Amino acid sequence: MSTLPVPEAPSPAAAPTLVVRTVPLELTDPLLTLLPAGAEPDDLVSWVRRGEGLVGWGRALTFESRGPERFRDAEAWWREVVTHAVVRDEVGRPGTGLVSFGSFPFADDSAESARLVVPSTIVGRRDGRTWLTTVSLDPQLTILESPTPASDPEPPQGVTFADGSVSPADYAHSVAEAVARINAGEVDKVVLARDLVASAQSPIDARWLLRRLAERYENTWVFSVAGLVGATPELLVRRDQGLITSRVLAGTIRRTGDDAKDLGLAASLARSSKDLEEHEYAVRSVADALEPHSSSMNVPEAPFVLHLPNVMHLATDVAAVSADDASSLTLAASLHPSAAVGGTPTARAVALISELEHMDRGRYAGPVGWMDATGDGAWGIALRSGAFAPDDASQIRLYAGCGIVAGSDPEAEVAESTAKLIPMRDALSGD
Question: According to the model, what pLDDT value does residue 142 have?
Fold first, then answer.
């Protein structure tokens, strides 16, 4: 997979001067409890796993871009913002100082825009240490008082579900057609997705979804960026002071809730030729994309089984040492779309997705995460997620997808996609 050329920076006049200050906080409250009540979904950001990460609110700056150049445009804009920022950072760790949160459409021709958001307030926690960052266009910026937990969110009321652009029957038909194309030699693997629309009687509080997801799926990164909310188990890439890591998931089996049976299913997953083949494609695509940016790399010979409450995945953690100054966003762009969400060979698989899927994925299965002024950051793949409808927080569109290979069975893939919708469906249930 080719790497992205270094983007050309826009003119200096394009970037306003941000005033940024980070200070340590003596605060132990859970990060997600700090998100303010009454905020619109677009105004809340999150990247939290096992109690650590970043949350933020308000918007100091935003950026949008569409099309094949969306990553280059965002990178160039961010570099210009960083160049003109005035930063006083009293903590000095990855995620302190100036930070942006982003989410990107899966497809080059998506009608949705890529989004970068610089919140006006950010609270971060790493290795038990907490900090507060404030961002403003006002040169007289003063540090806000330490945030306190907000009131608890109310559960969604009267939630109903309806087929989206792709019904289960439509999905099964697309899977069957994809298997036929694979057997005809057009591609080795293609990932197909479907959607489900959830509607509530009143606006859905995004904080409720984030808290529920964090409580139930501690092995995932719970994210929120510009109205896209979810809990992804898949880390596309992290760049942290010279170390690059990526978690690859491909190959899935649904859990039964019986521990003994699930152990047996985990063993069968680890031996499944169909799932191991799918996983190998995904790992190879990640390693090939990272290689130009790495001086050394470790790719485990065999995957492990990652246990989540609803499903189990074959997983491989790829680690590399950075060989250049490519930012975490540049690395994410070079990895997207990986075989885990696109297919193999990538270009032909993505073209087949466009032909068979019959919907615009929007930002589902695209990179989502954060980046600081040094280029360090973490980007996941926006899986197990939902996108709030524009200007209507009472409706959210949920997405799930499956990797299709020669041995795929249409009805089994419908069942797998249903299992992958469970995290968001349960988060909306109000139980």
Answer: 63
C-alpha distances out from residue 324 to 95, 290, 294, 331, Å: 20, 11, 7, 11
CB atoms within 10 A of CB 360: 16
How many residues in the chain?
431
* HEC readout, the chain: CCCCCCCCCCCHHHCCCCEEEEEEECCCCCHHHHCCCCCCHHHEEEEEECCEEEEEECCCEEEEECCCCHHHHHHHHHHHHHHHCEEEECCCCCCCCCEEEEECCCCCCCCCCEEEEECCEEEEEECCEEEEEEEECCCCCCCCCCCCCCCCCCCCCCCEEEECCCCHHHHHHHHHHHHHHHHCCCCCEEEEEEEEEEECCCCCCHHHHHHHHHHHCCCCEEEEECCEEEEECCEEEEEECCEEEEEEEEEEEECCCCHHHHHHHHHHHHHCHHHHHHHHHHHHHHHHHHHHHEEEEECCCCCEEEECCCEEEEEEEEEEEECCCCCHHHHHHHHCCCCCCCEECHHHHHHHHHHHCCCCCCCCCCEEEEEECCCCEEEEECCCEEEEECCEEEEEEEEEEEEECCCCCHHHHHHHHHHHHHHHHHHCCCC
Catalytic, 274? Answer: no
Q: What's the pLDDT at 49?
A: 96
Q: Is the pTM of this model over 0.70?
A: yes
Q: 234 an active-site residue?
A: yes
Q: Is the pLDDT of residue 11 over 80?
A: no
Residue range 245-296, pLDDT digits in tens: 999 888 888 888 888 898 999 999 999 988 898 888 888 888 998 999 999 9
| pLDDT tens-digit map of 153-171 | 999 999 999 999 999 999 9
Catalytic residue among 234, 357, 413, 416: 234
User: Distance between CA atoms of 414 and 25, rounded to whole angstroms?
Assistant: 47
What tens digit of pLDDT does each residue of 199-220 get?
999 999 999 999 999 999 988 9
Catalytic residue, from 189, 277, 278, 357: name it: 189
**Arithmetic mean of pLDDT, 72-86:** 96
